[in-house]
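Case study 2.
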Amino acid sequence: MKTMKNMITKATDFANTTAIKAATFASVQKHKMRHAIANNSGENYVDSAVKILIAVVLGGLLLAGLYALFGDVVMPTLKSKIQSMFNYAG
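Prediction:
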């Protein structure tokens, strides 16, 4: 009888300890979640997307400007200077 009573006591202690550990774990996780939800110091996906979109648009405008500059101003001037440099008749 003593052994059975001892086993029941151990099982009850184990159950109580497990229940206390589970309750403590749940409480800690609840506080972590509340802290994570209340924290607003991080960077959002929308902010990153807007930054990338602005960078792409500005890069495209810069390349278009350089293409227009080289096509209209630099290349004709460069072509005429090269032709005048190799002009053997004059």
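Residues 1-42 form one domain.
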